[in-house]
Amino acid sequence: MPQRKLDVVLDSVKRLLRVGATANLVNLLHKQHPADLAQLFSDLPEKDRRSAFALLVERNSKLGMEALSELGPEAGAALLADRSAEEIVKLTQELPSDDAAAIIDYLPETLAAAVLELMQKRPAGADVGELLEYPEQTAGRIMNPKVFALSEDMTAGEAITALQAARDVEMVFYLYVIDARRHLVGVVSLRRLLLVAPTTPLKRIMTTDIISVRADMDQEEVARQVASYNLLAIPVVDEENKLVGVITVDDVIDVIKDEATEDVYRLAGVSSDDRVFTRPSESLRKRLPWLIVNLATAFLAASVVALFSSSIGYLPMLAVLMPVVAGMGGNAATQTLTVIVRGIALGELTWGNTRKALLKEAVVGLGNGIACGLIGAVVVMIFKNDVMLGLVLGLAMVVNMFIAATAGTLIPLTLRALKVDPALASSVFITTLTDMFGFFSFLGLATVFLRYLKVE
């Protein structure tokens, strides 16, 4: 829905809630797509959000839960957390198993346990418990176990009949073929199935070169597989190659969005679940630790400046210009770091092409340093009428931006080798390094050539 129309609907919802026009409000909500309802819920104040959701789920539980699923598991769980376990079990039955599992995982621990206990007593609820047994951010956690599969002994006509009779399965993009022990042995496209004679055995028309993922594979790698092979769905198998579920492209899009958000947040030292309207106390708890780490590293940079305090006292202009060198190095490092972390996340950067990437970034850093250094040197020469000070500034920028580009490449690669998330820890080290080398190169060169600098 266009944003302008969404704003109009949002204003209408707020007004109808305020005047208590329940029937009109329900009628308005019923006309909205689940994704648009999710956006409306996220834009409403918490009290109005709860009232609107409660009203919608009371009149149309299916639409209400679809909107809740679109809202996201954390926000969705928050809207269900004040309900009883029995109510939650009943409502989550409106959702696919993978969406229900994601929401239950965010419920308070005691409530989630009670919900799962009740679900185990229902045939359809066992799937949710099984999904939650897989580690977080794996294929098993996001797959739908209700996958449509056909026996390899079937004919095309029997397969079409089985497909027509199928109920309550994930969207059928491909038809997976299994043997008697449920091993995944082939895949048939719907187009191929409809073009052959009804008596044709599936064994003759199925493709045995199958792209599948293990249930314990990281969800980010699953997304890469789907994107690389342009798939609409990908089957999930266990360690014995038995078909256990399917992941569709809509789930993959959510994974890509979540992983991208997580990487961007971590580059800034922010928790991936910190949102615009997260409680201030919660945001404080999540952000403060990394700020304290940054504070500690800032003192390291300050200690470098302290080494040259006499030079700064002799020529105070050094204190004015040294943030320029450090700041430009930090900006250059952030650019390199962003490109490298993205390359690692997308699988573009491997150990085999690391040297090539390092050489490229070093050349870019050197080129940027020369260009920015020349501009900085000319500015200082013109406004301060000091050629030597301009040359010192320019040379320091060349050195620091070259180091920034090199470090921006090596640090995330080293962290990956140490099994540490490059997006989470790289920025702290990069900031410290560029500040320290920036101050050291500029103030060190200024100290060496101090007698040639003009004292005001």
Provide a brief overview of the structure.
The protein is mostly helical. Helix content is 68%, strand content 6%.
Task: Produce the secondary structure layout.
Blueprint: H1 3-19, H2 22-30, H3 34-43, H4 46-59, H5 61-71, H6 73-80, H7 85-92, H8 97-105, H9 109-119, H10 126-132, H11 139-142, E1 149-151, H12 156-165, E2 174-178, E3 184-189, H13 190-195, H14 202-205, E4 213-214, H15 219-228, E5 233-237, E6 243-248, H16 249-267, H17 280-307, H18 309-314, H19 317-345, H20 354-384, H21 387-417, H22 422-448
Parallel strand pairs: 1-2, 4-5
Antiparallel strand pairs: 2-3, 5-6
CATH superfamily of the largest domain: SLC41 divalent cation transporters, integral membrane domain
**Overall domain count:** 3
The topology string of helices and strands comes to HHHHHHHHHHHEHEEHHEHEEHHHHHHH
Rounded average pLDDT: 86
Describe the structure.
The chain is mainly alpha-helical. Helices cover 68% and strands 6% of the residues. The chain has helices at residues 3-19, 22-30, 34-43, 46-59, 61-71, 73-80, 85-92, 97-105, 109-119, 126-132, 139-142, 156-165, 190-195, 202-205, 219-228, 249-267, 280-307, 309-314, 317-345, 354-384, 387-417, 422-448; strands at 149-151, 174-178, 184-189, 213-214, 233-237, 243-248. The strands form two sheets. Strands 1-2-3 form a three-stranded mixed β-sheet. Helix 2 (22-30) crosses helix 4 (46-59), helix 8 crosses helix 10 and helix 19 (317-345) runs antiparallel to helix 22. It is globular, with a radius of gyration of 29 Å. It starts with a helix and ends in an 8-residue tail after the last helix. The model has no long low-confidence stretch (mean pLDDT 86).
